[in-house]
Automatic annotation (TrEMBL):
Basic and acidic residues compositional bias, start-end: 281-293
Record's protein name: G domain-containing protein
Region annotated Disordered, chain positions: 273-293
Gene Ontology terms, MF aspect: GTP binding
Length: 293
């Protein structure tokens, strides 16, 4: 399985929260609406993996493809342990609408530092300050969804109580923001986290979704086809909730996808230094195959 990190330039968009944004491929300024989905949750529960899942779904990656795409990871502290949050700053990934892919609006996915981080109280306070500062910016209050991400088999303990308290502090009092639940590492059964969080979280919830991204980055075999279809179905339900899912059949989009990849491949968004030229060429080849389907 080849996993290509999309090479994109980043820019700081909010000095107070230190938020940074990657635009994953070039786009013209248009009047197309933009939906924002911010993911919050405990460290290591699959927020960044969920973003990669959404990216591959939007691009129409097929289970038989031997490659996947992933977003750039914004890490500024390099002495991290596996149990530490792998996202240091609020990071936005803009997935612009282009003809032929599955989002019919621009979509901005917002990754956040993990709550209950193992690096201590001071790090936790910094993360909360970043999130609250970002949400105070009126620019991002239109079409904003907050996804609470937690493992499907979540059980009540002191950690979970603390997590729910932190989430309440973040989302209470926010207007024009819709809150949804997203269960990760989910199997065929109803996730325990749905009933648990709904019982203890004193916030109106707009919907609940379960996603298992394990299948996305596994080597595929025929027996996995049913699991892949389930993954696609659940991902479609999530994106329909935030109203960006384009249901147009692939056959109607194939020519537009081929046209779109021309601008993607030639854009200066991709940093063509000597050290990553071979990576870029593989990425462009695989991206071209995606858009030609």
């Amino acid at each position: 399985m080849n996993v290509h990190e999309i090479i994109a330039e980043k820019k700081t968009i909010c000095k107070k929260s230190q938020a940074q944004q990657y635009t994953l491929w070039p786009c013209e300024e248009t009047d197309i609406d933009t939906a924002h989905l911010m993911l919050i949750g405990e460290t290591g529960k699959g927020k960044t993996t969920l973003i990669n899942g959404i990216l591959n779904f939007v691009l129409g990656i097929n289970c038989h493809y031997v490659y996947r795409f992933c977003v750039p990871v914004n890490i500024t502290r390099h002495n991290k342990r596996d149990i530490d949050s792998q996202t240091d700053k609020i990071t936005l990934y803009k997935i612009p609408h282009v003809e032929g892919i599955r989002n019919d609006k621009n979509l901005v996915l917002i990754d956040t530092p993990g709550l209950l981080d193992t690096e201590g109280i001071e790090c936790q306070k910094q993360s909360l300050d970043q999130i609250n500062s970002f949400l105070a910016n009126p620019t991002y209050k239109e079409n904003m969804f907050i996804g609470i991400v937690a493992e499907a088999n979540l059980t009540l303990n002191n950690n979970v109580r603390n997590l729910i308290n932190l989430i309440e502090k973040i989302v209470q009092g926010l207007s024009n923001v819709k809150v949804i639940l997203i269960a990760t590492f989910a199997d065929a059964f109803e996730p325990k986290m749905f009933s648990l969080i709904k019982e203890y979280l004193k916030v109106k919830l707009e919907g609940q979704f379960k996603i298992n991204n394990k299948i996305l980055f596994s080597n595929f075999n025929v027996d996995d086809e049913s699991e892949w279809r389930t993954w696609e179905k659940n991902m479609a339900l999530l994106l329909q909730e935030i109203q960006i899912f384009n249901k147009a059949p692939d056959s109607e989009c194939s020519r537009a996808r081929r046209d779109s990849v021309t601008s993607v491949s030639s854009s200066s968004t991709y940093l063509t230094t000597k050290s990553n030229m071979s990576h870029v060429k593989r990425q462009e080849k695989d991206m071209a195959e995606v858009f030609s389907k």
